Amino acid sequence: MTEFSDLGLSPATLAAVAETGYTTATPIQAAAIPVALQGRDVLGIAQTGTGKTAAFTLPMIDRLAAGRARARMPRALVIAPTRELADQVASSFEKYAKGQKLTWALLIGGVSFSDQELKLDRGVDVLIATPGRLLDHFERGKLLLTGVQIMVVDEADRMLDMGFIPDIERIFKLTPPKRQTLFFSATMPPEITRLTKQFLKDPERIEAARPATTAETIAQHLARIPSADPKAKRTALRALIERSDINNGIVFCNRKSEVDIVAKSLKKHGLDAAPIHGDLDQSTRMRTLESFRKGELKLLVASDVAARGLDIPAVSHVFNYDVPHHADDYVHRIGRTGRAGRTGEAFMIVTPADSKNLDKVLKLIGKTPDEVTFDIDFSTIKDEPRPGRGREKGGRGRERGVRDRAPRGRRPEAEAETPVEAPVAAEAEAPARPRRDAKPRERREIEPTTRREAESRPVQPRGERPARADRGERRRDRDDGDRVVGFGGETPAFLLRPAITRPDDE
DNA sequence: AAAAAAT
């Protein structure tokens, strides 16, 4: 057992660690922290739940303690694949850098640029970002990465899954080669190995044992039902939930639309559930996650946005409403429970249509989970075909609020036909679709003009100009002068601020 | 097949 105090961390950082109540370092922390403190590169092969966030946050804080940030030139950069993960790293940083003079900014999509820009202008020591928004800021000239001394890549294999590798390569190339790199991945597929060979210098390879294998701490169950009908599945899900002694649980669905429908259905049946997936706006995602973490929300209905990496302590149950498309996802999903030595239960609803994917899961986990039996006659449960389809053609006036079909009494639990699905679909679509009476032409003019303005400023290092900047250059031929169009006389301050002079221009 | 991430 290694104590944090044995790792060479500064007294200030140790004090912050002590305040969180931790005294013993996890194996990856014990191995990585001394190496990272020396300034060496680290290749950490570790899953979530092994304590890897602190393994890179703590030494980073100590190494940055001497020195100050300059405007738009961060000294350290952490890249994470999802917004939630980035946010999690930020809270960890906030916790451990407490009382020290380090500043940080979270650069993720889905939230306004202005706060982020303000922080960048003032100068931050550490940037914690998702790749897209980071590069967006860079292209807008709000950011120079030439001062980066430490770069952290978290969950690299997931970035690969999400198609971020070109972005990561580009970010690597924007930072100085003499930087320190801390690179983490749960697995090492060839693409990732190539990346580490290209961008890490003589890294110390640290492999953390997989957190207790699924078999040991998670009781796995299969709930086979004879029908793939959504309504039958929802009924089965409720039965599983109701028979379990749940502290808190996550319900995983394969589709975002299904997440909405299932969450709505559970709520309708009096269960404390809320949806989370990538189509929900960022503040909702964060709020939902926060209340789930605090224990205020009992059931989180989620897409695979929540399958990996999210640090949600002590989830007692995981329900797979769908068999995941990839067997790997199953392992990640149920890994949300049974963490840190606690026991957990995982259930998966399986229909005849899932046999192929189920086989892959069973093969991967190498064991046969217990089978759950139901006291339900599924043959009587069937979703009515979506009402409204045929009617809409006829008259447009009756689609909302008018139900021309009486509820049928024959079913014990009236899971109404329309209310569950139709309103959900309507809500989900509404914000995304521009209103018919809006003026799309005007909107189109505003965007490219401001962008062009931002992009045409001489801030991009040569040779690293992105495809979009190329477009910007071409448009510049048409010369709009310096006029900024689309803000009605008011030009936002950030567009008028002087461009950054690069060090090699001086 | 689906989800995630920049707008």
UniProtKB/TrEMBL annotation:
Q: Which SUPFAM superfamilies match?
A: P-loop containing nucleoside triphosphate hydrolases
A single GO CC term for this protein reads:
cytosol
Biological process annotations from GO: response to temperature stimulus; ribosome assembly
Q: Where is this region: Disordered?
A: 376-506
Query: Is the keyword Disulfide bond assigned to this protein?
Result: no
Q: Name one GO molecular function term.
A: hydrolase activity
Low complexity: compositionally biased ranges: 417-429
The signal peptide, as residue positions, is none
Q: Which InterPro entries does this chain map to?
A: DEAD/DEAH_box_helicase_dom, DEAD/DEAH_RhlB, DEAD_box_RNA_helicase, Helicase_ATP-bd, Helicase_C-like, P-loop_NTPase, RNA-helicase_DEAD-box_CS, RNA_helicase_DEAD_Q_motif
Keywords associated with the record: ATP-binding, Cytoplasm, Helicase, Hydrolase, Nucleotide-binding
- Composition bias of kind Basic and acidic residues appears in 380-414, 430-483
Q: Where is the Helicase ATP-binding domain?
A: 33-206
EC number(s): the record gives 3.6.4.13
Q: Which reaction does it catalyse?
A: ATP + H2O = ADP + phosphate + H(+)
Motif Q motif: residue span? Answer: 2-30
Pfam families per the UniProt record, alphabetical: DEAD, Helicase_C
Domain spans labelled Helicase C-terminal: 236-380
The answer to whether keyword Nucleotide-binding applies is yes
Q: Where is the DEAD-box RNA helicase Q domain?
A: 2-30
Q: What family classification does the UniProt entry report for this protein? A: Belongs to the DEAD box helicase family.
Protein name per Swiss-Prot or TrEMBL: DEAD-box ATP-dependent RNA helicase RhpA
Annotated organism of origin: Phenylobacterium kunshanense
